[in-house]
């Protein structure tokens, strides 16, 4: 008899084995395991998990179908709310969302909602279930800028409503952060990401790559010359931040964006691609978010000893719990309450180490977290050949700088209404990291969904 | 795909290609660049725009073979196509933002080194079309390496050629010519635009600082996406960190930290060489040379 207070454990690659490959870490549930886990769901009438989901998936609804063994029906329930279930099942921070409020979690472990969502999405892909395009379009054209989670969601929702949607992507491959940012071992590109993008295309969405909106074409040109009735901006986060400490431009110092882009988008880890990457033997990743964990685990797989250097304590690490857990299992060393003060270089301009200072937690700051303060006289040196800065991003000026009438805030993020994505410019909507600053995949999807709602309302009223 | 309508060898390992890219051709300006990728396995290579034809929808680029990706790129012929041709990227040249009236009274000199003649050309051409004639100095290693001579002559006020080995016109560097023009011929310039290898731009800047001529350089560091996302192209300008792709590629040459920029350019030298060797020698190369790591 199974213990109903505990999750059905999910199979994972052994940490020692996976530390040397780029294959997916988590292997997911089998049909039997999924049905067993589904039976743990209490099917609460007032389902708190749905309130915890940014896109309000009918969670007890799809879990009930899994329990009944009707996986296609389960996929149908999820598809009403999410266009990217295989992605969300893998990268959402469930512990702070749906699973965080699960009633099962009060006396035991929450239902493994994320793993069940992933199971349904993977099953659908393996069984060739594809979404159907609407029979005829309504003749209205919408341009979506960026093919990351917010853009794909917005485009998918609008296509289902009958709009003719074109996504413009600056890079050579669609997917945004799902392609260039999140690594293969967490989110397989060829199977999972490409299939989800194909599914959005099957709804009738066109994707044009290599178009840098703001440079190749402006938003005004899209509206006035190319016949689009509305535009959604989901252009993502933007420019990587650096600390501003001495030695930061030394060879061997990378932004996490560069390091991950070289490995993920440009496939530097594969011998059949030209892209070079300085893999490093002793690597420090500065920062404590999901991106920092991704960079650290990538460096580990490229053969390095890896340290995470983070100025606060473990409790404040912004990364998902599962990522921190996996990183530790794989042998990444966490230097917490530690802050870099200088990057040390050799005579040729390469990194040879990093001088750091120990920190302690003081009074809470504006974010509500206890402010880290340096401990005087505690400086020490780490011997390194590579430093990866994972400190967040600041908004990209390419669109805001070339679109008159589009207001940005003090942080240079685009100003947009939360529930409709409406910006200060007529016919232009926005959402995702371009509006909020760096956040999560699911929050970007929520914003894409809101943008689609806003555009539908705007164009319906205009008629 | 972006079809190549013309491919021509200009000099040893230097090729010119005219590419069908209507969106880029419609909106590009002198000083901007594109990111080109040959095929699925290729790198994203930043290349400055050499010329464009808005009506035909074509953009001309000049490529030099340096690593595995550019070697494969240069093998393409008219009728082939690039997988990707994204742009325009970067900011247009400062000159074209100025009022044509004031520009006419400006005394402008360009110094182009080697491949630098390619990005200099559209700026000189643009000035010529707006009734401004600029002096242009083009330097190269030898006669063979002088590119776009006739094209440049047609749009430049005065064209001065020089070769390092004296195999054509005269012996000497671009800096030697500039010094002579100013010190011996009494020429006066209000602005100098220098484009070429970093070491050449560094020496032009040292000279123009001495001569008191404000100087603009176009930086060509390592890049990945070219849209501001990766930060690989960062450099120090006047003590501040700038991204060549979104803040440049043009900067005040007297403020650029060239020594740091040149060190950064070396970053992937060994890896690029490694990929090139693997391509040339294929499975027959198993290392042993001690530096390429082909046996890794």
Largest interface, chains and sizes: A-B, 42 and 46 residues
Radius of gyration of chain A: 23 Å
CATH class of the largest domain in chain B: Alpha Beta
Strand order of the largest sheet of chain A: 5-4-3-6-18
Give, in order, the helices and strands of chain B.
Answer: EEHEEEHEEHEHEHEHEHEEEHEHH
* Low-confidence spans of chain A: none
Structural category of chain A is: alpha/beta
Ranges of chain B where pLDDT stays below 50 over 5 or more residues in a row are 279-296
Overall 3D geometry of chain B? Answer: globular
Outline of chain A? globular
Distance separating the two termini of chain A:
61 Å
Q: How does CATH name the architecture of the largest domain in chain B?
A: 3-Layer(aba) Sandwich
CATH superfamily grouping of the largest domain in chain A = FAD/NAD(P)-binding domain
> What is the strand arrangement across the widest sheet of chain B?
6-1-2-5-4-3-7
Write the topology of this structure.
The complex is a heterodimer of chains A (463) and B (296).
Chain A: E1 11-12, H1 15-18, E2 26-28, H2 31-38, H3 48-52, H4 59-68, H5 71-79, H6 85-91, H7 113-126, E3 141-145, H8 149-160, E4 164-168, H9 177-180, H10 189-202, E5 206-208, H11 219-224, E6 230-233, E7 239-240, E8 253-255, H12 256-263, E9 282-286, H13 290-301, E10 305-309, H14 321-330, E11 333-335, E12 338-345, E13 351-364, E14 370-374, E15 380-383, E16 386-389, E17 393-394, H15 397-400, E18 428-430, H16 433-436, H17 441-462
Parallel strand pairs in A: 3-4, 3-6, 4-5, 6-18, 8-16, 9-10, 9-16, 10-11
Antiparallel strand pairs in A: 1-2, 7-17, 12-13, 13-14, 13-15
Chain B: E1 2-11, E2 14-20, H1 22-27, E3 33-37, E4 45-53, E5 58-64, H2 68-74, E6 81-82, E7 84-89, H3 100-104, E8 108-113, H4 117-129, E9 135-140, H5 149-155, E10 159-163, H6 174-183, E11 191-195, H7 198-211, E12 215-218, E13 234-237, E14 240-243, H8 244-247, E15 250-252, H9 258-265, H10 269-281
Parallel strand pairs in B: 8-9, 8-11, 9-10, 11-12
Antiparallel strand pairs in B: 1-2, 1-6, 2-5, 3-4, 3-7, 4-5, 12-15, 13-14
């Amino acid at each position: 008899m199974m213990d109903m207070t505990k999750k059905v454990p999910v199979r994972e690659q052994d940490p020692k084995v996976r530390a040397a490959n780029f294959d997916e870490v988590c292997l997911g549930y089998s049909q039997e395991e999924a049905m067993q886990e589904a039976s743990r769901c209490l099917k609460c009438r007032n389902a708190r998990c749905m309130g915890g989901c940014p896109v309000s998936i009918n969670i007890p609804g799809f879990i009930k179908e899994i329990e009944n063994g009707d996986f296609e029906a389960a996929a149908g329930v999820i598809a009403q709310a999410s266009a990217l279930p295989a992605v969300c099942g893998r990268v959402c921070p469930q512990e702070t969302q749906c699973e965080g409020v699960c009633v099962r979690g009060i006396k035991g472990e929450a239902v493994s909602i994320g793993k069940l969502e992933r199971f349904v999405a993977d099953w659908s892909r393996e069984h060739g279930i594809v979404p159907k395009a609407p029979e005829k379009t309504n003749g209205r054209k919408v341009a979506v800028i960026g093919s990351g989670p917010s853009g794909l969601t917005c485009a998918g929702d609008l296509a289902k409503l009958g709009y003719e949607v074109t996504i413009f992507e600056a890079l050579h491959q669609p997917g945004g952060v799902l392609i260039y940012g999140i690594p293969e071992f967490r989110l397989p590109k060829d199977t999972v990401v490409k299939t989800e993008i194909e599914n959005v295309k099957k709804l009738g969405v066109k994707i044009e790559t290599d178009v840098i909106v703001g440079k190749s074409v402006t938003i005004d040109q899209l509206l006035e010359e190319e016949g689009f009735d509305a535009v959604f901006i989901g252009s993502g986060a933007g420019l990587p931040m650096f600390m501003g400490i001495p030695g930061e431009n030394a060879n061997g110092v990378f932004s996490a964006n560069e390091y991950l882009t070289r490995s993920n988008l440009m496939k530097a880890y594969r011998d059949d691609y030209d892209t070079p990457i300085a893999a490093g033997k002793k690597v420090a990743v500065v920062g404590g978010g999901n991106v920092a964990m991704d960079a650290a685990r990538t460096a580990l797989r490229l053969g390095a000893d890896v340290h995470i250097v983070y100025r606060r304590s473990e409790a404040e690490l912004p990364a998902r719990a599962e990522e921190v857990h996996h990183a530790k299992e794989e042998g990444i060393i966490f230097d917490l309450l530690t802050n870099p003060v200088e990057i040390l270089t050799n005579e040729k301009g390469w990194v040879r180490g990093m001088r750091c200072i120990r920190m302690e937690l003081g009074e809470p700051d504006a974010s509500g977290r206890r402010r880290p303060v340096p401990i005087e006289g505690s400086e020490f040196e780490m011997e390194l050949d590579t430093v990866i800065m994972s400190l967040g991003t600041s908004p990209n000026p390419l669109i805001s700088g070339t679109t008159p009438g589009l207001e940005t805030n003090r942080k240079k993020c685009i100003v947009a209404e939360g529930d409709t994505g409406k910006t200060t410019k007529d016919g232009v909507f926005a959402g995702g990291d371009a509006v909020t600053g760096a956040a999560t995949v699911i929050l970007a999807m929520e914003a894409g969904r809101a943008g689609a709602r806003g555009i539908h309302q705007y164009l319906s009223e205009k008629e | 795909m972006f079809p190549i309508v013309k491919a021509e060898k200009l000099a040893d390992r230097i090729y010119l290609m005219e590419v069908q890219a209507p969106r880029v051709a419609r909106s590009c300006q002198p000083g901007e660049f594109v990111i080109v990728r040959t095929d699925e396995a290729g790198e994203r290579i930043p290349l400055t725009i050499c010329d464009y034809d808005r009506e035909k929808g074509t953009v001309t680029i000049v490529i030099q073979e340096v690593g595995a990706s550019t070697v494969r790129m240069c093998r393409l012929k008219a009728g082939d196509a690039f997988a990707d041709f994204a742009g325009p990227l970067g900011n247009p040249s400062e000159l074209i933002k100025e009022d044509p009236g004031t520009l006419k009274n400006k005394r402008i000199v360009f110094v182009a080194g080697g491949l630098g003649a390619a990005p200099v050309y559209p700026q000189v051409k643009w000035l010529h079309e707006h009734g401004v004639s600029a002096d242009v100095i083009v330097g190269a290693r030898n006669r063979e390496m002088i590119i776009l001579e006739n094209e440049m002559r047609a749009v430049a006020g005065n064209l001065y050629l020089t070769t390092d080995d004296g195999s054509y016109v005269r012996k000497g560097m671009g800096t030697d010519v500039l010094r002579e023009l100013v010190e011996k011929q009494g020429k006066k310039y209000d602005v100098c635009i220098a484009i070429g290898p970093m070491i050449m731009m560094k020496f032009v800047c040292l000279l123009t600082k001495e001569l008191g001529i404000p100087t603009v350089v176009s930086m060509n560091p390592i890049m990945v996406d070219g849209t501001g996302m990766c930060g690989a192209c960062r450099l120090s300008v006047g003590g501040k960190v700038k991204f060549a792709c979104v803040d440049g590629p043009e900067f005040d040459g007297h403020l650029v930290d060239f020594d740091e920029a040149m060190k950064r350019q070396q970053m992937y030298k060994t890896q690029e060489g490694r990929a090139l060797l693997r391509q040339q020698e294929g499975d027959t190369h198993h290392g042993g040379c001690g530096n390429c790591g082909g046996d890794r």
